[in-house]
Amino acid sequence: MDSFSIVLSLILVSSVSGLYFHIGETEKKCFIEEIPEETMVVGKYKVELLDKASNTYVQTSGSFGMHVLIKDPEEKDLLSRTYAAEGRFTFTSHSSGEHQVCLHSNSTAWFGGGQLRVHLDVQVGEHANDYQQIAAKDKLTELQLRVRQLLDQVDQITKEQNYQRYREERFRQTSESTNQRVLWWSIAQTVILLITGLWQMRHLKGFFEAKKLV
To answer: From 45's CA, which of 37, 90, 102, 211 has a CA 20 to 30 Å away?
Structure first.
């Protein structure tokens, strides 16, 4: 693998996504994140409530919280917990595939309540590690820390490549299954046409014999 491919793989593997979105106070919002197996994911969020008087988003009250639900590719719950209005959640994937990340408030307001702005930053792979904390905990030098980062990046690249091979295998199986179904459907259509043609020929023969035309 050349240096450009390595750099490109690092960019693709070390996924970092930051965004904000608006939802109703009682609305649920879900995202799909494709994650390789045995990969740590860290999500940081902050919720603000629309102040209708000033038409600006302000901090929510202390009792306000967000429920975070994480489902794996088999629709099993990896994480289901209610946090404060601002915080972080962490989980590790056990299998490769599409993971659902769903958030909704713990509000019991009627008729939808107010409008919320949710800032969400999801970090996947080695970017989810806090290397400053790791360096302080393990007493690593700058060089040792850099080596640790490179090892984590290589490990994540390996996981991502394995996941891509898994996706390619699934795509190949789906393509083969689709082609096989198309083939059998074509054969079935041909058989139906042949049976219909034979039946029409027999019916016409009987008709001509009844009319004594043959």
So the answer is: 37
Burial class, 60, CB count within 10 angstroms (exposed 0-12 / middle 13-18 / buried 19+) = buried
Residue 125: is it exposed, middle or buried by C-beta count within 10 angstroms (0-12/13-18/19+)? buried
> Which residue in this structure is represented by tokens 């629309």?
50
* Helix H or strand E encompassing 19: strand 16-24
**Each residue of 51-90: pLDDT tens digit?**
888 888 888 877 788 899 999 998 899 999 999 888 889 9
Q: What is the mean pLDDT of the chain?
A: 81
Q: Which residues contact 39 (CB under 8 A, 6 or more apart)?
A: 92, 93, 124, 125, 156, 159
Q: How far apart are CA 62 and CA 58, in angstroms?
A: 12
Question: What amino acid is encoded at 93 in this protein?
Answer: S
